[in-house]
């Protein structure tokens, strides 16, 4: 079968041939329809995040997938059923996090991540998975199901952010998303029904498809070159929620300045080992005296995938079509992994429903 992988010592993804996998007992065989490309895939290719499966000279990429059950192999799934796989797997025997159904809360050394760290991904014509890590979804997601995994990360992140505000009556007036990439735009769409005013920060010039999408959603575009995060309260308004999806380390600290009283910032980006000076005492006081909070969040699990499916189902029909701007066949791997100013979300299409 065809697969897209990065090989040890290489810094670009390639189309390779691999044997079609045979499902173990408890596993189902899935025929891949589409796999999304996101920033993590580029980090894996560059070698700045994740790691190869033990004993393998390559890693199959991809963790945002949708496929069809080809062989249920005695599981409760049905042939032809549309499914989306989760990302994390136990490293051998299940750890306590997996046993209690919370793999998204496991530390990095107690889990594997398909297509990212220690396990092959889904960017292949077929893949196998334990049935318990496959989430059945409606047939309508055959083309947009690749958006469920990233949206599930938002569902988990917001769940934790909202939980930190659950002890009092929290006002949800204004929300700011840092980053106008696919995850930021998915999150912005999610927040439209919960906040009176929404903003999305980026660094792009008009005309730009992400700015068009931001404004079509009814949000305000904030150009960080004109208005840095810390200046947002003065130029626009203080924020009750800030969702960081840039991986720019300074944003974590600038978020504190941009939050309103009782506000919460949730951090999802993974920065490098950046070092810089911060006004630690002042920021500490703002957190304490303002009842503000910062929450970190990574990964998601079954219930978040299910919530993401409901959220995406409720969005306007045009949203998925405008977000997914480019679709490539596997042989066009070089083009798929190249940058283009008019792209938002890129997917690899292995097969159709």
Automatic annotation (TrEMBL):
Class of the enzyme per the UniProt entry, highest EC level: oxidoreductase
GO BP: any one term: non-phosphorylated glucose catabolic process
Enzyme nomenclature, EC number: 1.1.1.47
Keyword Secreted found: no
Alcohol dehydrogenase-like N-terminal domain: residues covered: 25-139
Domain of life: Archaea
Reactions catalysed, as given in the entry: D-glucose + NAD(+) = D-glucono-1,5-lactone + NADH + H(+); D-glucose + NADP(+) = D-glucono-1,5-lactone + NADPH + H(+)
Alphabetical UniProt keywords: Carbohydrate metabolism, Metal-binding, NAD, NADP, Nucleotide-binding, Oxidoreductase, Zinc
Pfam families found in the cross-reference section: ADH_N (PF08240), Glu_dehyd_C (PF16912)
An example Gene Ontology molecular-function term: D-glucose binding
Family: Belongs to the zinc-containing alcohol dehydrogenase family. Glucose 1-dehydrogenase subfamily.
Protein name: Glucose 1-dehydrogenase
Organism encoding this protein: Natrinema altunense (strain JCM 12890 / CGMCC 1.3731 / AJ2)
Name of the gene encoding the protein in the UniProt record: gdh
């Amino acid at each position: 079968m065809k697969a897209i992988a990065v090989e040890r010592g290489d810094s670009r993804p390639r189309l390779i041939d691999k044997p079609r996998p045979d499902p173990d007992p408890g596993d189902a065989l899935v025929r891949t329809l589409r796999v999304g490309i996101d920033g993590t895939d580029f980090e894996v290719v560059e070698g700045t995040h994740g790691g190869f499966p033990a004993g393998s000279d390559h890693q199959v990429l991809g963790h945002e997938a949708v496929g069809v059950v080809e062989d249920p192999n005695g599981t409760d799934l049905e042939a032809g059923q549309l499914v989306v796989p989760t990302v994390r797997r136990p490293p051998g025997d299940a750890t306590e996090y997996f046993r209690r159904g919370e793999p998204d809360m496991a530390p990095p050394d107690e889990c594997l991540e398909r297509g990212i760290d220690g396990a092959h991904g889904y960017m292949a014509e077929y893949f196998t998975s334990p049935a318990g890590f496959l989430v059945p979804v409606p047939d309508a997601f055959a083309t947009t199901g690749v958006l469920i995994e990233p949206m599930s990360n938002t569902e988990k992140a917001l769940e934790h952010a909202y939980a930190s505000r659950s002890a009092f009556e929290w006002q949800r007036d204004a929300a700011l998303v840092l980053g106008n990439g696919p995850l930021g735009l998915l999150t912005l769409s999610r927040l439209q029904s919960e906040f009176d005013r929404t903003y999305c920060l980026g660094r792009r010039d008009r005309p730009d498809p992400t700015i068009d999408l931001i404004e079509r959603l009814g949000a305000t575009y904030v150009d960080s070159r004109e208005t840095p995060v810390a200046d947002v309260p003065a130029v626009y308004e203080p924020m009750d929620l800030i969702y960081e999806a840039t991986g720019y380390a300074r944003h974590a600290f600038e978020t504190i300045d941009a939050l309103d009283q009782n506000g919460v910032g949730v951090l999802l980006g993974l920065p490098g080992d950046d070092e810089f000076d911060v006004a630690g005492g002042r920021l500490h006081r703002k957190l304490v005296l303002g009842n503000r909070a910062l929450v970190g969040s990574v990964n998601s699990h079954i219930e978040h995938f299910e919530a993401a499916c409901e959220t995406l189902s409720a969005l306007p029909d045009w949203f998925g079509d405008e977000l997914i701007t480019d679709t490539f066949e596997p042989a066009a791997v070089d083009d798929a992994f190249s940058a283009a100013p008019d792209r938002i979300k890129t997917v690899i299409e292995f097969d159709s429903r």
